[in-house]
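SAMPLE LOG
Freezer: B-3
Tube label: C17
Construct: single chain, 81 aa
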Amino acid sequence: MADLNDLVRIKAKADELRRDADRASGALSQVMARLKKEFKCGTLKEAKALLARMKAEEAEAKKAFDDAMAAFELEYGERLS
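STRUCTURE (predicted):
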């Protein structure tokens, strides 16, 4: 009888894992659809390349802002106090 109980437990675990895999697959499909719709990326590789480009643009924009702020504070800093 222990063998039958083991088989029942194994089947239950397999069913649970199958459901988990189905949920993960559905979530992946939703994320990929969102990447395609919002960012025009068809693959994860494209999304990673876009992310790298966006991070580089962010760093450039931050540097430009910091430079402009420093110049502004240098020119008008004493008037702001």
